[in-house]
Amino acid sequence: MKKILLILTVLFSFTVFSQKQTNGKIYIDHPAIDVVNQFNEAYISGDLDKLRELVTDDVKVWTLRNRQANGLNWILGTSNYLSKNLINFEIKHYGGAYPDVFEYKQDDVVDVKTYEFLTGYDKNTGLDLNMPRYGTYRMTAKGDRIQTLWINDDQILWQKNWDAYETSENGVIYKDHPLVTKVRLLYQSYKTGDVEKIKANYTENTIFYDVMNSGIDEFKNLEEEFAQFDNYMEMFEIVDIKESGFPDVLDYSGDGAVVISWTDITFKNKKSGNTKTVSQHIQHWFNDEGEIIREDYYFNPAQLPQ
């Protein structure tokens, strides 16, 4: 019985392995890679004559943006524009990536697959255009020219750059507004030194960002913020808070509103009796219900009176 099982196991193994069938080869070195490298060099430098030599007249270019293929004019047009308008324009492999050549036996085609990074910034918009760029270059039968090109890159970033050429609104700025009133009332409550009265201007979920004394996006919750406030109030007293200029409401399109304000806050050192006025820039973020959901402030403890 054991012999029969062993024979069946061997036969099954042969059956499984016989189901595998190669459909070509993968190369790390291949003449087609040289053609692709020449193409990228010509594309970056804007050498349009060289590009014409390296692609077929009926070359097709597929991108994530278009449902239909582009042609030779797309290659020449984008190369001409990018080479003249992108500073430090490069297309290079990154990390340990390198191109592969897939030689498909069944279809009798050769594809070069690249795993590159496009870098540079547009001198007209100042926007960094740094993005992964995965390309597939299908070669002609002779292997000396590119007949089809598939490019996968960051179309959202490209669109952001094209939009930056235009002037577009993103909301309205108000000088007088109900949210300005809420911020002014908040400052009035700080003058009282009454913590519970101050906290009533916030919600339980309000977050606080001490920009100059915290890590990037390192927020405190309401209790953490006022625990620190209590520590300061043991040593200092708020004598006065005055507006510097006037607050602005930035009512963003679809993203809520932010009140930005500038104040001069006078502190008194309870031990020494010294006073000092500290200028503050503060931002209050509001939800659709008019509640403060976030407060950003730029506070330098070194400015407090000694």
* Contiguous uncertain segments of 5+ residues: none
Q: How large, in whole angstroms, is the Cα Rg?
A: 32 Å
Quickly give the CATH architecture of the largest domain.
Roll
Helix content: 25-40%
How many beta-strand segments?
14
Number of domains: 2
Helix count from the secondary structure assignment: 8
Query: What's the CATH class of the largest domain, please?
Result: Alpha Beta
- Here the CATH topology of the largest domain equals Nuclear Transport Factor 2, Chain: A
| Average pLDDT over all residues | 90
Strand content: 35-45%
Order of helices and strands: HEHHEHEEEEEHEHHEHEEEEE
Tell me the span between the first and last alpha carbons.
94 Å
- Mind summarizing the main beta sheet? 7 strands, mixed
Structural class estimated from helices and strands: alpha+beta
**Tell me, what's the shape?**
elongated
Structure description:
The chain is of the alpha+beta class and 306 residues long. It has two domains: 21-163, Nuclear Transport Factor 2, Chain: A (Roll), CATH 3.10.450; 171-303, Nuclear Transport Factor 2, Chain: A (Roll), CATH 3.10.450. Helix content is 31%, strand content 37%. The chain contains eight helices and 14 strands. The strands form two sheets. Strands 1, 2, 3, 4, 5, 6 and 7 form a seven-stranded mixed β-sheet that branches. The longest helix is centred in the N-terminal third of the chain and has 17 residues, at 2-18. The relative contact order is 0.10.
Secondary structure blueprint with pairings:
Elements: H1 2-18, E1 24-27, H2 31-45, H3 48-54, E2 55-63, H4 72-85, E3 86-93, E4 100-104, E5 109-122, E6 131-139, E7 146-152, H5 155-163, E8 171-174, H6 178-192, H7 195-199, E9 202-210, H8 222-235, E10 236-243, E11 248-252, E12 257-269, E13 275-286, E14 292-297
Parallel strand pairs: 2-7, 9-14
Antiparallel strand pairs: 1-4, 3-5, 4-5, 5-6, 6-7, 8-11, 10-12, 11-12, 12-13, 13-14
